[in-house]
């Protein structure tokens, strides 16, 4: 019976992932200061802190659930530091901007993830994600600092960047919920 429930979850997972419970919308703010774009975001998911952390750090499978990402791979791992390479593309109307990023990721237990760009082809970038487990959900707070290398990138606008961050965190939130449902369906049932 558990196997049947698990198979059902795997087949219906993408459908369930489309429906998010009534959570507050993902809140994203973007400001510009001294040539830097500063991003701040907050969101939550009805999953344990361990489940949220698992999705946020699943770099080898991230391209499977993140929009605009074609590949994501951990290229090295030493203790709590990972080197990650990700590729993708952003559609900008008639133009497509190819993205190729190498980042150093530092994880602190299951409550903090710090990232820093290594190749900085679009400009230096750093971010910090804080996770806080609550009784029935995990709250996530994100801060990022990006210094665009070109006027074209800087001209994308705060609203476009906010939209991209909302899309990314919505995808992560959906994946957290999908994995949580699979976990619940595969849990031993009472006799």
Highest-level CATH class: Alpha Beta
> What Rg, in angstroms, do the CA atoms define?
18 Å
Helical stretch tally: 4
Please tell me what the overall shape is.
globular
Please describe what this structure looks like.
There is one protein chain. By secondary structure, the protein is α+β, with helices and mostly antiparallel strands. The chain has a single domain (2-186), classed as Alpha-D-Glucose-1,6-Bisphosphate, Chain A, domain 4. The chain is 30% helix and 40% strand. The chain contains four helices and eight strands; from the N terminus they run αββαββββββαα. Strands 1-2-8-7-6-5-4-3 form an eight-stranded antiparallel beta sheet. Helix 1 runs antiparallel to helix 4 and helix 2 packs across helix 4 (158-186). Residues 46-158 form the Coenzyme Q-binding protein COQ10 START domain. Belongs to the ribosome association toxin RatA family. It comes from Chitinibacter fontanus.
Please give a handful of descriptors for the protein shown.
Alpha-D-Glucose-1,6-Bisphosphate, Chain A, domain 4, disordered N terminus, COQ10_START, single chain, globular, 191 residues, alpha+beta, 8-stranded antiparallel β-sheet, Coenzyme Q-binding protein COQ10 START domain-containing protein
Quick summary:
The chain is built from four helices and eight strands; from the N terminus they run αββαββββββαα. The chain has 191 residues and is an alpha+beta fold. The chain is globular and about 60 Å long.
What layout of secondary structure does this protein have?
Blueprint: H1 2-17, E1 27-33, E2 36-45, H2 49-56, E3 69-78, E4 81-92, E5 95-108, E6 112-117, E7 125-133, E8 138-146, H3 151-154, H4 158-186
